[in-house]
């Protein structure tokens, strides 16, 4: 009878050890899986960050080029405005304007 009890106890101990070992292996596998998942997320996130940085660099370069073009256009426009103002305020132009007024008065009879 004692032999049966000790055999049952041994079997129960072995079964408990197997369950404990299986539980430890399962926990380790879960831990490894979570570590692998985190590595995947980090690598993916790192790649996304690099791609976003490249996109931002391209946009920044485009903005810089657009700003330079805008500045050069403004400078050219300022030169044209300055030339036009000089032309408007020149003596010859003023004389021509007065002549034009006199011609219009003469045509309409408003002497």
UniProtKB/TrEMBL annotation:
Annotated coiled-coil segments of the chain: 12-70
Keywords: Coiled coil
Domain of life per record: Eukaryota
Protein name as it appears in the record: Uncharacterized protein
Phylogenetic lineage: Eukaryota, Viridiplantae, Streptophyta, Embryophyta, Tracheophyta
